[in-house]
Amino acid sequence: MTMDLTAIVENIGQQARKASRVLAQASTVQKNDALVTIADQLEQELEMILEANRVDLDAGTEKGLGAVILDRLRLDEKRVRAIAKSVHEVATLPDPVGEILREWSPVNGLQISKVRVPIGVIGIIYESRPNVTSDAASLCLKAGNAVILRGGSESVHSNIAIAEALGRGCKRTGLPAESVQLLSNTDRAAVTAMARLDRYIHLIIPRGGRSLIETVSAEARMPVIKHYDGICHIYVGRAANLQMAQEIVVNAKCQRPGVCNAVETLLVDEAVAPTFLPRCAEALWSQGVKLLGDALTREILGEKVAMATEEDWQTEYLDLVLSIRVVPGLHEAVEHIETYGSHHSDAIVTDEAKTAQKFLSQVDSAAVFWNASTRFNDGGEFGFGAEIGISTDRLHARGPMGLEELTTYKYLVRGEGQVRV
Amino acid sequence: MTMDLTAIVENIGQQARKASRVLAQASTVQKNDALVTIADQLEQELEMILEANRVDLDAGTEKGLGAVILDRLRLDEKRVRAIAKSVHEVATLPDPVGEILREWSPVNGLQISKVRVPIGVIGIIYESRPNVTSDAASLCLKAGNAVILRGGSESVHSNIAIAEALGRGCKRTGLPAESVQLLSNTDRAAVTAMARLDRYIHLIIPRGGRSLIETVSAEARMPVIKHYDGICHIYVGRAANLQMAQEIVVNAKCQRPGVCNAVETLLVDEAVAPTFLPRCAEALWSQGVKLLGDALTREILGEKVAMATEEDWQTEYLDLVLSIRVVPGLHEAVEHIETYGSHHSDAIVTDEAKTAQKFLSQVDSAAVFWNASTRFNDGGEFGFGAEIGISTDRLHARGPMGLEELTTYKYLVRGEGQVRV
Fold it and tell me: What is the DSSP string of B142-191?
């Protein structure tokens, strides 16, 4: 690592820490003003942002990036206005900071309050999509945190343009411009430099593929909240309402197959498999879903279903593909999920409350559903207003990460001269 | 790393994960029964434990360990009975698992419950004192977690004897013996092997000196909750009750100087310094405290006070030494704390509510005190019943870590066939 990069990142960190102390004391009105002004600034700088985006698109085309990636990269007037609107919406969400989580007085007579406070400085390391720049920054800001963004090389010009608009928006309302900073160096070494800066950065959230998350986790000295794959299951129990089960399975697989809370494996109780599987398979096939199955599934559905391998049970397809296994009962369903799942989102469909309770209790996932689609594991659907992602970690934030999960707490202790004896 | 060690640690991890799934479903009565039985088992095995301890003491004496370390290592009947009593007390604490943290129904009509659940498998890496073995294990157990212990080489025989008693206690009540496991390999490589086992270990808590914590943090792939130094401050404001201030300072420095929540730096408002410092210094000197100070302090207290260096402000003395600085007011006190402090425990003494509020809000520490000794940042004093330590991290657990901080949460979502549109 060159001295220059280390010094640059150190300086960004120092400025961010300074800004975070101002943000932690900012009122809700001040933060909301800043967000509204940022939205306005993004609209004002629309032309500059689109111009920067064209530079990224041209470079991407020249590099031979695929159509999907180029589409993700592309901004147009509508998309920039949507980005601005999202920032506006964050201003309307309740401010989590200052909430008193608990107040009590132990035997020593002290008055203790556990209050919600910002985390401090949050680093976001992300890949291609430029809208992450403002989405992540506005959530961090609302929760009173300074943010250091480090996007991918494909969108670097777009990210710089957006981040500068964000910084100018902050400054216009009297908050530090350094509340939002972008590290524009897209070398791998810049990630390493951020990962070592535990002196100033209190949390890093990597948003992207497995390899990015693994690199950041391995190098980071500060806490990292990971958003890994969702290998999600639906177990159709012997007492399931089969029409409901079919609707839930089709929804969880087909409504948006490319996301982490889509279902990847269907587990069917052997008691209902002969009735359920043929009709459910028809519904899935009619939506273009490719089915893989174990031997029992293939006995029922025939050769059209390819044999599922050990690898299939561990695969997040993110596509119209579903693996199916027939299981003797609840116990085997839970064991399958614990063996192959990623503790993300798993569901049971059953009319038996007792079976459902066991499933909810025994399946160790961020969100466990009874008679509902796994697709509901989502900050918006949970009523959080917005989310920075769905954490697959267990500590601090599990499942949808909204504004509250971007805060921590401290203890305020009021005494009358108490000393320890 | 040899294949053997990796395989051993992997196997311990796998067994712990299996045990943790049983523990997560165990009732409060079952867990309390196990703790009571463990306490009983420790008393039953007292002779074996003392014998193992003698092996450690002999080896320590031969190695030339200092008297303080040997005393920390030493067990006698009274100490083993105290260890058993502590385990017994954990049985009387309320069970945090199963608590419903929040219940709500968003617009989609789902019934969402956020419930407290165990973390899973917790690794504790610690140094000399053998009582950590049972203290940490009993807290983890009560919160429904399996635990993997890895103690220091000086106490390895004592730790093995205690851990085996714990495992036998679990087994006697029908809980898996693998709920508590000790990794008896005391090579550095064993720590590395544990740090890489994020597949099975969900959290590592290093208990020991800075170098141990740094090694674990740098190598761990899973979350680590750190318990670093406390560089704690007391600011005596211009409107302080000077008698109260003196009592708090003397208590925070002298009552137990070797712990993390003892005060290391006294900041005195210039308005009261000429009155306060001479009498406070007398009280501290009479307790054998060595004072260091800035130029203004030395103007008031004279040459008897050595000059405090830049390094002093950053030092956790853990001894009867106190550095003193005279500051123009609140702002400079807060800036000093933010520059040199460790965000652990800081206090203000003042009769002005407005000044106190500013201090409580602006000082970014785990616990901020108004008119009370910093020594109260402690799980027992907070009414948590017991603590595994005082976290200097911001995420998941900040300040005293009791049973609640050894848990996480999951979402249970009940629907009536809802799908996403």
Answer: HTT-EEEEE--GGGHHHHHHHHHHHHHHHHHTTS-GGGEEE----SHHHH
Determine the Cα–Cα distance for residues A329 and A243; give it in Å rounded to an integer.
20
Q: How many CB atoms lie under 10 A from the CB of residue B63?
A: 11
**Residue in B367, B382, B410 closest to A398 by CB:** B410
Question: Distance between CA atoms of B135 and A147, rounded to whole angstroms?
Answer: 39
Same domain, residue pair B351 and B280: yes
Least-confidence region, from A185-189, B280-284, B354-358 = A185-189
Asked if A418 is an interface residue toward chain B (Cβ–Cβ < 8 A), one would say yes
Q: Is the dihedral of CA A234, A236, A237, A240 positive or negative?
A: positive
Residue B385 has pLDDT above 90, yes or no: no
- Nearest chain B residue to A242 by CA: give it: B417
**Given the DSSP bridges, would you call strands B367-372 and A203-207 parallel, antiparallel or unpaired?**
unpaired
The alpha carbon of residue B351 is apart from the nearest alpha carbon of chain A, in Å, by 10
Q: Is residue A382 part of a domain?
A: no
Enumerate the residues of chain A whose CB falls inside 8 A of the CB of residue B96: none
Q: Which run of H or of E encompasses A266?
A: strand A263-269
* A 208-227 near B (Cβ less than 8 A): 217-218, 221, 223
Work out the minimum CA distance from B417 to partner chain A, whole angstroms: 5
The mean pLDDT value for B368-384 works out to 96
Residues B73, B157: one domain?
A: yes
Residue B206 sits in the same domain as residue B337: no
Interatomic CA distance for residues B338 and B342, integer angstroms: 8
Q: Cβ–Cβ of B202/A395 closer than 8 Å?
A: yes
Q: How many domains does chain A have?
A: 2
Q: Let me know whether B28 and B144 are in one domain.
A: yes
Chain A residue closest in CA terms to B246: A417
Range of the domain at B161: 3-226+400-413
Same domain for B318 and B217, yes or no, is: no
Query: Do B67 and B216 sit in the same domain of this protein?
Result: yes
For the ranges A174-183, B117-126, B218-227, B320-329, which has the lowest average pLDDT?
A: B218-227
User: A152: buried, middle or exposed (CB in 10 Å: 19+, 13-18, 0-12)?
Assistant: buried
Residue B383 located in a structural domain: no
Mean pLDDT in residue range A343-357: 98
- Nearest Cα of chain A lies from the Cα of B194 at a distance, in angstroms, of 14
pLDDT at position A208 is 85
A219 contacts on B by Cβ (under 8 Å) = none
* Span B82-110, average pLDDT: 96
Give the CATH number for residue B242: 3.40.309.10
Within a domain: residue A41?
yes
Q: What's A96's domain CATH number?
A: 3.40.605.10
More confident residue, A67 or A237: A237
Query: What are the helix and strand counts (H, E) for chain B?
Result: 14, 16
Chain A nearest-CA residue for B411: A367
Q: Does B244 touch chain A (CB under 8 A)?
A: yes
Separation CA A160–CA A183 (nearest Å) = 9
**pLDDT tens across A2-28, in order?**
669 999 999 999 999 999 999 999 999
ipTM over 0.85: yes
Same domain, A317 and A217: no
Q: How far apart are CA B339 and CA B333, in angstroms?
A: 10
pLDDT tens column, B319-364: 999 999 999 999 999 999 999 999 999 999 999 999 999 999 999 9
Is the CB of residue A109 less than 8 Å away from at least one CB of chain B?
no
Q: Which residue in the block uniquely carries the two structure tokens 């007390």?
A: B89
Judge if A215 and A281 occupy the same domain.
no
Counting one residue from A and one from B, how many pairs have CB atoms under 8 Å apart?
Answer: 206
Q: How far is B373 from chain A (nearest CA, A)?
A: 5
Partners of A234 in the beta sheet? A266, A347
Task: Say if B48 falls within a structural domain.
Answer: yes
